[in-house]
Predict the 3D structure of the following.
Amino acid sequence: MIKVGIIGATGYAGGELVRLLLGHKDAEIVWYGSRSYVDQKYASIYQNMFQLVDANCMDDNMEALADQADVIFTATPQGLCASLVNEGILSRTKVIDLSADFRLKDVKVYEDWYKLKHAAPQFLDEAVYGLCEINRDSIKGARLIANPGCYPTCSTLSIYPLVKEGLIDPATIIIDAKSGTSGAGRGAKTDNLYCEVNENIKAYGVASHRHTPEIEEQLSYAAGKPVVLNFTPHLVPMNRGILITAYASLTKKVSYEDVKAIYDQYYEDEYFVRVLDKDICPQTRWVEGSNFVDVNFKIDPRTNRVIMMGAMDNLVKGAAGQAVQNMNLLFGEDEAEGLRMAPIFP
Amino acid sequence: MIKVGIIGATGYAGGELVRLLLGHKDAEIVWYGSRSYVDQKYASIYQNMFQLVDANCMDDNMEALADQADVIFTATPQGLCASLVNEGILSRTKVIDLSADFRLKDVKVYEDWYKLKHAAPQFLDEAVYGLCEINRDSIKGARLIANPGCYPTCSTLSIYPLVKEGLIDPATIIIDAKSGTSGAGRGAKTDNLYCEVNENIKAYGVASHRHTPEIEEQLSYAAGKPVVLNFTPHLVPMNRGILITAYASLTKKVSYEDVKAIYDQYYEDEYFVRVLDKDICPQTRWVEGSNFVDVNFKIDPRTNRVIMMGAMDNLVKGAAGQAVQNMNLLFGEDEAEGLRMAPIFP
Amino acid sequence: MIKVGIIGATGYAGGELVRLLLGHKDAEIVWYGSRSYVDQKYASIYQNMFQLVDANCMDDNMEALADQADVIFTATPQGLCASLVNEGILSRTKVIDLSADFRLKDVKVYEDWYKLKHAAPQFLDEAVYGLCEINRDSIKGARLIANPGCYPTCSTLSIYPLVKEGLIDPATIIIDAKSGTSGAGRGAKTDNLYCEVNENIKAYGVASHRHTPEIEEQLSYAAGKPVVLNFTPHLVPMNRGILITAYASLTKKVSYEDVKAIYDQYYEDEYFVRVLDKDICPQTRWVEGSNFVDVNFKIDPRTNRVIMMGAMDNLVKGAAGQAVQNMNLLFGEDEAEGLRMAPIFP
Amino acid sequence: MIKVGIIGATGYAGGELVRLLLGHKDAEIVWYGSRSYVDQKYASIYQNMFQLVDANCMDDNMEALADQADVIFTATPQGLCASLVNEGILSRTKVIDLSADFRLKDVKVYEDWYKLKHAAPQFLDEAVYGLCEINRDSIKGARLIANPGCYPTCSTLSIYPLVKEGLIDPATIIIDAKSGTSGAGRGAKTDNLYCEVNENIKAYGVASHRHTPEIEEQLSYAAGKPVVLNFTPHLVPMNRGILITAYASLTKKVSYEDVKAIYDQYYEDEYFVRVLDKDICPQTRWVEGSNFVDVNFKIDPRTNRVIMMGAMDNLVKGAAGQAVQNMNLLFGEDEAEGLRMAPIFP
């Protein structure tokens, strides 16, 4: 049994970790951390867990946690994990950080985009970016995993093969992303009230969203040179789901079959990435509640561009599910353990 | 391995059966029946099953099915199961009917409310009403299970103990029910279009809904005399979930503790019925995707009535989940096999 | 031109007042009160008013307001209006209070249900309950109007005629109400976040909601004796709309035509109350954005009960629209001025 | 009084025409055309119009209509208007066609994209594209107005000024559009059922949507040369609203103020186009129910692109509202008559 501690267990990503880990045959949650609800029954906050979770919420005691847990998930605001982690912790336990603290290798880029001083830049080199399909081998031996952001997971998996194979010009990449509202977190803000989100769609963080450099960094590795791109997220009136629609100019004349072959080459052995059949557009409803990413593309010969699309559940593959996938890799489990549930529809 | 055939696999209840059975360790679906989509890939209709289900849809050949399947689920319109079932079928396989054909013992009541001639009244006596928490023992030996309706499941489980114990006057029972839209099925009707359902609530079938006699029959067994009641369903703009709010006059002065003790007596050993803590109202979000029914009550001393509430997922405990629970009972499986997933939130 | 001041102009009811008054040919808003946003552009808070409203938000200075406004709308939390109003104010201006401060004639009932000390009980006798269809004449000469609550408006209009005419037994009345989320206000609370409300339905305030005594008081006037009833509100995932489904036992044998004649007698000359055709159930989508209340009923001979239904827009007839209707009556305007817009669908 | 006939009065755009024209002081609807519901009460189909519209639905008799109506709105499927219009009709009445039949000047482009033979190409030259803010003067004298598509209205108004002024390279334009579900019409299709649309987002018509050539044609006029672009629509779970997010490369170094000045130059005298303040992103909720288009932009110096955004109500400015605006221009009315209602929120 892998003993698991969660810091931030009452946020939406934390709640999803609990849901997934309850179905994992080799994991046991030993610490439901939630500073806001210390000593309250976890199931009184997440009533879906009534009679399934008996524990109370606990404070964020990283030292105690490191002694009790084989792995700690930090599903917390930016900056917190970096402020808590240290050599003593990492020598005793694994850390999978769902925040952005260890996703960007360049501390200056982090500090510019997040407007925060990084509290533990000494671990940036060591931290492994936990995009399992790309970095599987490095993940296996890591102590500290930077669990990817929701938009970067969906964007990178959808675009990466075509950049890596040189089929598209990275300088022309534009990503138009749409997310359900759970991505905005459980904080009580007027902007996230039901009546403000329902019957509405808006862009936000235009040309300034903090997931931009994360996507750029990953695609830069694929391109072998720095990539700068446009990324525009939108808030959609639904609970879960991310859809990205990405555009780029083709570098050469290619057929549907050419491009399909490349996607298949990268993903045909990947359980969680499904390359859809021709002309089937990814839809968030077909992945809800699951760890799948559905990807597809369409060539537009009129403009010589390819439109790349990806859909996933932002709380699963975009957060808690990928975190569990990383845990499975870290502990030598079957990578899909606890993550095989089919998408729920409708 | 239990070999399972599904007739009506592309309706919402049929799709949910597929989702649940994929997670069942001892069941294998051998027949995806769907007259509308014969020979088409099942996963091309329910794209969530892409790469999970490879089979094509098949026609409704009950004879062939009886040879291949240990159990047949009929998730079909009223009248179909009754027209297909016969002694030859039942001697070879089990049938779990998700339609209303075998729920009412009195053929006249069926024909009055459903405006259909019953094609197989000779099996009404034999059929067992598959409300597992009430009829567990009879279910185990049955050949033909009448899987309960969604509203009757939620209503009966919420009200049954207080009727049975004589705490409420059955003549005063009023059930005001609210359902998500998946209950209306996947047929293409203007009334069920997104723009017609969204931003709307309405009552329908007022004083005439066909689940009324089904609830009345079950509560009559509890009361030991005929029960006539009001049942009013409402359509709510959400995919899943049923909430019932029921009212009845108390027959004697009782305390919270008295009533709570009765609910506990009936349900404390029931995994799928959760009696909530004092003053916690059932909400559909806390049971979504799961087989749980959450029930609770509130005494109003001003009017001497008790308000009984129940929430469940109409596609799980209200249809496919209970059908699987029945299958587990029929085949001697752990009753909760394939049904232990925690509710999904948000 | 009627000069209008609004206190609480940035709540949902306040915003709706602004929307309606912009379309009123004889009214001009001179004061957009909002303590939370003093000196900020009103249109920066309610961006729908960009280029339509140029004013800034102002503080709650009742004295200054009384000098500048012919009528003051208080769309504020319970207790505020009572704490601000006094003889000096009422001698200079009219007050239409959208809170509950002056709706209940018995100060003790107010203090019991609202858990507040009433700051101005001396005006309770004078205040007129502004349910226009019932109290039209008294409203015309009033200084202080208690604008009815949303649930009480819909409930009373749906039930009043049958109580008044003695057709139903008031002791058997049960009201099961469903409301869109704008009724919960614009305060930033976790419970009202998009992901908490969406895909969910729940009862709240069971046997304890503060609109209960308000409905009881109005129906007591109709009954000529005290009425005690059950009222259960539910929160529905939609922005606007209230539907009430009410149940009561008939006191005598009546036909559809008998009951219809009574509703017609009360409402056939009322522009804003529409008695629907036989078997047409009220739906909130058919009244959205308008001041209409749609009512209808169904007799259930099996139980000898009548089911009464009413639908309206909680922000219009349930708040701002009725407030404007009251203003029209106070100032001798056409009662429907500014309120003739057809419902918006879809 | 302008006598108005509507063909297709029971579709969503037709219903919206009725709503708007009821509030128009100089228009009267004399013909509610709806082939599907001939002789049925219009208000029995659109129950919001109960007691507001007394008329029955009528068949599509264009000859009779031309005698009775000063203007005919055709809110009908592609091809129908072209098949009905002729010189005799146009010599007697004005026609405002809400379908695509007369939007594209090149009959071959129409037939390629719409897969239809055009039945009246002889009127293509004469027809005026009714984008009021661009073609106001030509509209005034027209007999036949091609009312613009929803996506083209929002896209063209958002992008046109920067193309016209040469600030962006037209070859780089990418439009990512998002629409509410009323845009899909009222036909009973499985894909548009509540449970299929709710909790989902998807792209559709990728690189093949029929509004593409319409946008290209309009922007070509601005560019003075053919424009080819990418246009990707998405279906959003909400009733109303279109948001477009458009991307293009800047042709020179410009400041925020430079670009703002250009938008202001085109729109500061336009009542229905609102150029928002700096950094305020258009949102569909702020225009719902109104004829406004809210536009804004953001320069991204990192990529040298500008992101242009526009939001409007697809049924108002994107269909019925613009049609009424065109009618006002045709008949010398105040252009905003019947269209001054403020957006409804929430």
Q: What stands out?
A: The longest helix of chain A spans residues 150-164. Chain A touches chain D at residues 174, 176, 178, 180, 195-196, 198-204, 206-207, 228-230, 232, 234, 236-241, 243, 245, 247, 281-285, 288, 298-300, 302-303, 305, 307, 309, 311, 346 (CB under 8 Å).
